[in-house]
Every structure is written in structure tokens, then in C-alpha cells.
């Protein structure tokens, strides 16, 4: 049901009568604003409900904009939906003009900060906000496209003005269409982020529809919220790098008898035990200060964190470049050895049952370790609930059975180590994995490595 606090507002575009719907938080403002561009059946209860959610839960003004006209608030006839949506998709000037009219209306509200406006679009509206961005306008700070059409964008594109977040179903848009969109964004100089959700169809946010997916809706909504706050400078991008490292050494033995040394970070006693655990797989120079910093940061957030050893206790830091290459090749070419080292780290963590909830263990990995957590997932690994890969390298995938952990891949848009996403998604789908993949514009390999040339505070903050 539509919230009673949503108020209808009449306005015009070139004399054409429109009827939008505004939800306002309590207080005088000025507030930041989100303008919602509707899906193809008009601006009705769905968009008004989203507006009410934004006002109540986020504290922003939310305006459900009209595109078709005040007499076409709800379109039920399929032919008419097709006819109307095609009319605006094929006439970007008209579509962008209607969006501009909504922006002008919202900017006129005395309780709105007109310099802090973001566009959200759903389905047809998701296409519209991308068309608006490609028009080169800088009247809004950001645009978010939820399951928008990606193949009907205008051919003549100017510089993409606002920051852009695209949220796409893995069974809606093809991976090739998404990769083409990345290239188009890059050509237009866009600051983009694209996230894909496995097994999710078009319209995954539409409540009560047969395409609705609660997981993807929740994940995309939270992502859009964080994106909006950061884009409008309500919150700053922050590094997770701790001021000091707080870990203790843990000696253990690999299955082949190799002496290992990991590093454990425990949360303060205010955190009620048992706690979830995060196992950190190191990048290619071994398990050293960087992994210890990540473990310390996780412990501050209430996770038992264990920076696992892969190479052995005598190779905690590998300085020599050629030796790093040799070790990476050794483990990548021997998946059984690599998986056994990961499994031993999991077993070590599960021995800490006074602190650890042994049913709540996940693995995260950086670079070489990011490759590793995906390898574990595709190799029948079942003792971790989730696997998170930060800037891993992916060239081939050997699926040995159903993928048990949920898989999250976080990569830079300029990182060629990410590999072929079509092949990656196909491998995950073959293993019936629940996966999510996010890429960040202009970001290179190693973007989370504090103080490195590749470090990117925006991508590090968003991925963390």
C-alpha cells in the first residue's frame, strides 16, 4: 500500500501535464533528494512505496517522477506499455526532457538541497537514467540503474556527467552486454560501478512479482544507499588501515608436514562469543603486514580474523620477484596442494571454538589469495560459507561439483587479471553457485593494497 505521507505534485514539461509523488522526511531540511524514474507501467504504487522507504529509512526527500503523463499513472495493457516505452527509448531528447522537468521540480522545493540530487531508475527508468547520464548533464551527482535495459542506449554520447551504479541480474543482461557497457562508459569518461547477481531475472526488485528476488533486492538496495551517501559526500570514503597491528602468531602444520605460521586477531571481550570468523588468504608476497592489518581491522568489527599461511613459516615475506612468480605458479599449477593449505587453515580456525562459531566461517583473499578462494569454491570446498575475492587473477576454471560457498568477486575495471567474465559466470553457473561480481571504473590490480601505487580509496572503501 502507498504510504499516506506520499503527496502528489502537479508539474509540467513543455506544457504537458505531469503528476509526480513526493515523500519528505520530518524536519525543515534542506535534504538531499532521490528522484525515481519509473518502470514501464507508469509511476504508481511501486515507485511511491520506494519513495516512502527512502524518506523514512534514509532521511532523504524522494520524488517518484512522471514520464508518460498525469493520465497514464498506471498502464496495464501490454501493447500500450511496449508502445510507450519504445516511444521514449527511441527519443532520448524527450526522455531526458521529462527527467529534467522532474529535476527542476524537485530543485524548486525549499526543503531540498538542489546540489545533492541522485537519480534512481527501475527497468525502463533504469534505461532512462543511463540515457540522462550519456546526455552529458551535470545537474545530478549520481545515477543508479536497477535492472535497466543496456542495449537501447543512444548512439551519440557526450561525456558522462554523474557517477553511475548499474545493478544487473545475471539471467537478465548477458555478460557480453555488460562488458560492452563498460567499454562505452570508459569511452564517455564515466566513473562507474557495475554489480551482477547470479540467477536473477529482469525486474528483481519488483515486490510481489514472480521475478522478485529478496536477496538481490536487499543487496542492491544497500549498495545504492552506500553509493548515494558517498556520492553526495554525506559519508567519506575511509581506509580500513588500522593505526597499529594487533595479532598473535599461531604455529600449525600442513598436511604434508610443512611448518606453517598464521596470524590471529581477536575482537575485544565486549563482543559476545562465539563469533564469526574470517580467514584471510594472502597475496603473492606471503602473509605479512598487509594481511595482519586486514585481520586487525576485521577484529575491530567483531570478527575473529586469521591471516593464513600458504607458502610456509619460512616464507612469511617473499621479497624477490622471481621467487614470488615461482611460488604462485607452484600453487596455481597444483590445485590439490593449494586447497589442502586452505583447508588446514580452516581446520585451525575451527579448533578455536571458544571464540569461533564454527558454522560461521568465510574466506577472503587478495590477489593470489583471491584466486585461491575461488579455486576452493570450485573444488568442492564446503567448510566456508562464503568466498570473497579481491582483485584475483582468473584465467581458467575447473568446476569439480556444486559450489557450496556464496562467491563475491571484486575487481578493478582496468585489471586485465580479472579475465573473461563470460567464462567466469559460466563456470559459476555450471557449479550452481550463488555469485555476485562487482567491477570499479579506472581501477587497477591491487587496488586494496594500502600505500601502493595501485591503491584506490573509493574502490577499497566500496569493496570493504
Q: Which SSEs are present, and which pair or pack?
A:
Blueprint: E1 7-13, E2 16-23, E3 31-37, H1 45-58, E4 61-64, H2 78-89, H3 92-108, E5 112-122, H4 124-134, E6 142-146, E7 163-169, H5 175-187, E8 192-197, H6 214-231, E9 248-253, E10 259-265, E11 275-281, H7 289-300, E12 304-307, H8 321-332, H9 335-350, E13 356-366, H10 368-378, E14 386-390, E15 406-412, H11 421-430, E16 435-440, H12 457-463
Helix pairs in contact: 3-4, 9-10
pLDDT < 50 stretches: none
Class of secondary structure makeup: alpha/beta
The amount of helix comes to 25-40%
Quick one: overall form?
A: elongated
- Provide a count of the helices: 12
Would you tell me the overall average pLDDT? Answer: 94
Radius of gyration: 24 Å
Task: Say how many strands there are.
Answer: 16
- The helix-strand sequence is EEEHEHHEHEEHEHEEEHEHHEHEEHEH
How far do the termini sit from each other? 36 Å
Largest sheet: 16 strands, mixed
Strand content: 15-25%
The largest beta-sheet arranges its strands as: 1-2-4-3-5-6-7-8-16-15-14-13-11-12-10-9
How would you characterize this protein structure?
- The protein is built from 12 helices and 16 strands.
- It is an alpha/beta fold and 464 residues long.
- Strands 1-2-4-3-5-6-7-8-16-15-14-13-11-12-10-9 form a 16-stranded mixed β-sheet, with helices on both faces.
- α3 (92-108) crosses α4 and α9 packs across α10 (368-378).
- The longest helix has 18 residues, at 214-231.
- The radius of gyration is 24 Å and the shape is elongated.
Amino acid at each position: 500500500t502507498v504510504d499516506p505521507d506520499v503527496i502528489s505534485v502537479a508539474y509540467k514539461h513543455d506544457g504537458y501535464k505531469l503528476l509526480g509523488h513526493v515523500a519528505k522526511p520530518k524536519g525543515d531540511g534542506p535534504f538531499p533528494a532521490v528522484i525515481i524514474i519509473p518502470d514501464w507501467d507508469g509511476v504508481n504504487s511501486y515507485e511511491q512505496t520506494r519513495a516512502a522507504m527512502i524518506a523514512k529509512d534514509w532521511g532523504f526527500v524522494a520524488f517518484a517522477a512522471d514520464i508518460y503523463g498525469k493520465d497514464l499513472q498506471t498502464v496495464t495493457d501490454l501493447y500500450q506499455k511496449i508502445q510507450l516505452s519504445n516511444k521514449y527509448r527511441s527519443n532520448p531528447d524527450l526522455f531526458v526532457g521529462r527527467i529534467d522537468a522532474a529535476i527542476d521540480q524537485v530543485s524548486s522545493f525549499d526543503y531540498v538541497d538542489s546540489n545533492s540530487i541522485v537519480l534512481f531508475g527501475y527497468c525502463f527508468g533504469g534505461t532512462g537514467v543511463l540515457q540522462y547520464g550519456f546526455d552529458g548533464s551535470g545537474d545530478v551527482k549520481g545515477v543508479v540503474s536497477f535492472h535497466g535495459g543496456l542495449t537501447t542506449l543512444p548512439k551519440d554520447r557526450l561525456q558522462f556527467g554523474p557517477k553511475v551504479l548499474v545493478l544487473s541480474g545475471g539471467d537478465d543482461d548477458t555478460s557480453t552486454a555488460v562488458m560492452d557497457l563498460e567499454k562505452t562508459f570508459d569511452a564517455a569518461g564515466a566513473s562507474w560501478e557495475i554489480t551482477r547477481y547470479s540467477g536473477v531475472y529482469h525486474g528483481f526488485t519488483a515486490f510481489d512479482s514472480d521475478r522478485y528476488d529478496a536477496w538481490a533486492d536487499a543487496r542492491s538496495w544497500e549498495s545504492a544507499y552506500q553509493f548515494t551517501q558517498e556520492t553526495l559526500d554525506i559519508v567519506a570514503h575511509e581506509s580500513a588501515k588500522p593505526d597499529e597491528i594487533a595479532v598473535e602468531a599461531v604455529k600449525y602444520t600442513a598436511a604434508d608436514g610443512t611448518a606453517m605460521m598464521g596470524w590471529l586477531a581477536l575482537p575485544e571481550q565486549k563482543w559476545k562469543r562465539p563469533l564469526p570468523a574470517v580467514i584471510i588468504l594472502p597475496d603473492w608476497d606471503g602473509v605479512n603486514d598487509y594481511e595482519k592489518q586486514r585481520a586487525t581491522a576485521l577484529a575491530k568489527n567483531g570478527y575473529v580474523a586469521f591471516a593464513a599461511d600458504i607458502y610456509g613459516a619460512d616464507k612469511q615475506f617473499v621479497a624477490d620477484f622471481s621467487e614470488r612468480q615461482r611460488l604462485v605458479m607452484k600453487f596455481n599449477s597444483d590445485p590439490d596442494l593449494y586447497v589442502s593449505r586452505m583447508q588446514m587453515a580452516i581446520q585451525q580456525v575451527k579448533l578455536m571454538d571458544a571464540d569461533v562459531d564454527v558454522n560461521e566461517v568465510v574466506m577472503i583473499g587478495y590477489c593470489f589469495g583471491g584466486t585461491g578462494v575461488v579455486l576452493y569454491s570450485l573444488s568442492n570446498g564446503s567448510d566456508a560459507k562464503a568466498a570473497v575475492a579481491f582483485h584475483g587473477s582468473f584465467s581458467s576454471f575447473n568446476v569439480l561439483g556444486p559450489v557450496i560457498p556464496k562467491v563475491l568477486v571484486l575487481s578493478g575495471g582496468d585489471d586485465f587479471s580479472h579475465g573473461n567474465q563470460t567464462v567466469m559466470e559460466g563456470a559459476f553457473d555450471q557449479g550452481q553457485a550463488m555469485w555476485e561480481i562487482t567491477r570499479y571504473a579506472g581501477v587497477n590490480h591491487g587496488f586494496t593494497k594500502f600505500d601502493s601505487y595501485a591503491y584506490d580509496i573509493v574502490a577499497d572503501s566500496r569493496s570493504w
